[in-house]
Amino acid sequence: MLIQHTLLLPDGPLTLQRAPGTPVAAEGTAALLAAARRIVGPRVFVMGPGITAAAGWAARAGARVTVWTENAAEAATLQATFDAARWPPPQLFLQDDFTGLEPATCDMALLLLPRGRALQNEAWRVAAALLRPGGRLVFAGATREGVDSALPEARNVFGRSNIVVRKGGYHAGLAERPAEGEFLLPEVSYETHALTLEGAPTVLASTAGVFAPDRLDAGAAALIAGMRVAAGMRVLELGCGTGLVTLAARRRGAEVAAVDVSARAVASTRRTLAANGFPDVPVRLSIGAAAFAGQRFDAVLANPPFHQGHGMDFENARLFIAGAREVLSAEGKLYLVANAFLKYEGALRQHFTHVRCIWEDRRFRVWEAGN
Question: Which helix (H) or strand (E) holds 56?
């Protein structure tokens, strides 16, 4: 499952052992390390999408590395890369919140900014809380993802923050944890929203970083409209997000399970299901269908993401399609929704004999695939 990818860092090449769906962040890493120039202090905190290369750079310099991520693929990449290089294992926090992180224990923080203002503001606060007084923050973010407009909040937290490197569409900068002041780890809160799902009143629970946190996404709505799920079927959703597709299948009487690579999506789905009367549905953190390997389902449901940053990437879709083939029963079917302009039929036919579009509108198609 792991894919080798080599990056050239300032101190030499580093080979990532990358899990599918994990961003490489080559340009962002290059800007980040150019701004950092060297590792300062024995303990380094690393956070953000595609952080394995920066974490490896710190480990190679002899630092003790602490990493927070809510993404299971990111965590698997980090662990496999460190194992292959035989570095001391990082202190890894794979979870939806910041429980257990020790404030004021790190000398340096390396931060690759995520997309979205709420997540960026959260990242500033986490870095400030983890750094010792006088500790150094180095950050990088894509200009297209608002790194410059995020600076006022960085200055609000740190007092001073400046861009020092402009490289390949990324800006990188520096800040220092003030000697005075209280810097608390942010709390992750889950909000609820009322909506209607297939004619029934529904509660949606979500938090920052989960796709479509306050609504029924149009792609999910298309999948619900097109999927052929009936009472008594065993159904698995890949990439459950806020859990509305899983909920729709459960309300039809199916025996359901769900997975997502995001710890926050898993927590959101569990909360959504519980709020609507189904607290016992198994929802697991997983890269693709791996958490249910060896089990068999009558239907697999998938709405795979195809964006990575501002570009298109079909690695997750290929992972979902191959994973569905592994867990479907002999007569089982995959129901996959995709934007109408995406050409998924060829990828589906690599794993399934019978492939057809069973539902479509102007924007979406729902594909049924089986053998």
Answer: helix 52-60
Give the C-alpha separation, 353 to 363, whole Å. Answer: 26
Token code pair at residue 172: 């990188």
Q: Which residues fall within 8 angstroms of residue 81, CB to CB, at 6 or more apart?
A: 14, 15, 16, 17, 18, 52, 56
Cβ proximity of 8 and 29 under 8 Å: no
Partners of 301 in beta bridges? 237, 335
* CB proximity list for 294: less than 8 A, separation 6 or greater: none
C-alpha span between 167 and 26 (Å, rounded):
11
Q: Which pTM value belongs to this model?
A: 0.96
- The β-bridge partners of 349 are none
Give the separation between CA 97 and CA 87, rounded to whole angstroms: 26
d(CA 151, CA 105): 24
Q: State residue 312's pLDDT score.
A: 52
Q: At what angle do helices 52-60 and 26-36 cross, to 10 degrees?
A: 40
Dist CA 115 CA 170 (whole Å): 13
The reported pLDDT for the residue numbered 1 is: 77
Q: How many of the other CB atoms lie within 10 Å of CB of 358?
A: 13
CA 335, 336, 341, 342 torsion: positive or negative?
A: negative
State pLDDT tens for residues 249-291: 999 999 999 999 999 999 999 999 999 999 999 999 999 999 9
SS3 state of residue 40:
coil
Contacts of 214 (CB under 8 A, 6+ apart): 191, 193, 204, 206
Residue 179 burial by Cβ neighbours in a 10 Å radius (0-12, 13-18, 19+): exposed
Q: What is the 3-state secondary structure (H, E, C) of 9-46?
A: ECCEEEEEEECCCCCCCHHHHHHHHHHHCCCCCCEEEE
As a residue count, the chain comes to 371
Q: 92 with 72: CB under 8 angstroms?
A: no
Alpha-carbon gap, residue 139 to 356, rounded angstroms: 46
Q: Which of 49, 53, 89, 43 is nearest to 69 (CA)?
A: 49
> In sequence order, what are the residues at sequence separation of 6 or more whose Cβ sits closer than 8 angstroms to the Cβ of residue 339?
219, 306, 363, 364, 365
How deeply is 324 buried, as exposed, middle or buried, from its count of CB atoms within 10 A (0-12, 13-18, 19+)?
buried
Q: Please give the full DSSP string across 275-307, using - where no structure is assigned.
A: HTT-TT--EEE-STTGGGTT--EEEEEE----E
